[in-house]
Automatic annotation (TrEMBL):
One GO molecular-function entry: proton-transporting ATP synthase activity, rotational mechanism
Superkingdom of this protein's organism: Bacteria
Coiled-coil region(s): none
Organism: Corynebacterium liangguodongii
Protein name: ATP synthase subunit delta
PROSITE patterns: ATPASE_DELTA
Similarity comment: family membership: Belongs to the ATPase delta chain family.
GO annotation, cellular component aspect: plasma membrane; proton-transporting ATP synthase complex
Length: 277
């Protein structure tokens, strides 16, 4: 996203946060705004002329907000309408970036709802858990990544898998991600889980271990990594028995391989180098 669009999104996000904070029921308001913003994006995706018009820099802000209000004013809650009018009144670099901005704002609204419900950490864990589930289920991932399938079909497929097993915020966010892929289902869900961690003020450490970590092990590991990196750490863990023992730690671009498999690989490399001499 270009600088102008980032600034536009930041301005609208301030309005979004105020609307949620000052509502009588912040959780319900956040959930409704998030869901309705996603529905608006669905319509913009299907109507190119409308998508272009509400972001057209040649029009005056009042003209763009007028179009946005005429189309959506009676179809969404007043708080959602105010977010949409604020977005239309900003200068975006392109219609595509306005669309992405509305997606980001919808996500932020749902995450604020989860936070108000005391479920933000749970949502983070569930989103990462879904990414691991898909990584281990290649057939399901292929179906969800099928570019020829409609967004509705893919959302319906995932909804059947996760319904009743995750919070309503996780479900709404996951279905949005699957319906509007940026990379692939596994990476998109993991990236969103990282976004939630950042909202909680934490840096993600992705841990792959030979056996499942206990709660005490996760806490101890988070403490050690905090000392090393100087920041709060969120542990996203998965199990890979092929490591044989130990774990692999990824923080940003840095990888620390303390697995038994990694040690064996390095030992073989050292022996091969010695033999070569």
């Amino acid at each position: 996203m270009k600088a102008a669009s980032r600034e536009a999104q930041e301005q609208v996000q301030v309005r979004l946060e105020d609307l949620i904070r000052n509502s009588d029921n912040s959780v319900a308001a956040a959930a409704q705004i998030g869901a309705e913003l996603f529905l608006v994006v669905d319509q913009l995706d299907g109507e190119r002329a409308l998508r272009v018009a509400v972001a057209d820099p040649s029009l005056e802000p009042a003209q763009r907000t007028g179009i946005m209000g005429d189309v959506f004013g009676n179809r969404v809650a007043d708080q959602t309408k105010q977010v949409l009018l604020a977005a239309a009144g900003q200068e975006w670099s392109s219609p595509r970036e306005l669309r992405q901005g509305l997606i980001n704002l919808g996500r932020r609204a749902l995450l604020r709802g989860a936070e108000g419900q005391g479920q933000l950490e749970q949502v983070e864990e569930e989103l990462f858990g879904l990414s691991v589930l898909l990584e281990n289920n290649k057939q399901l991932t292929q179906l969800l990544a099928d570019r020829t399938a409609t967004a509705e079909k893919k959302r319906g497929l995932l909804a059947n898998v996760i319904y009743g097993h995750v919070t309503m915020f996780t479900e709404a966010l996951a279905l949005q991600v699957i319906g509007r892929p940026e990379s692939n289902p596994v990476d998109d869900l993991a990236a969103l889980a990282t976004e939630v961690a950042q909202l909680r003020g934490k840096t993600v450490a992705r841990i792959t271990s030979a056996e499942e970590l206990s709660d005490s092990q996760r806490e101890a590991l988070a403490g050690k990594l905090k000392t090393i990196y100087g920041c709060e750490i969120a542990i996203h863990s998965e199990v890979d028995p092929s490591l044989l023992g130990g774990m692999v730690i990824r923080v940003g671009d840095e990888v620390i391989d303390g697995s038994t498999r990694g040690k064996i690989t390095r030992l073989r490399a050292d022996l091969a180098a010695t033999t070569a001499y």
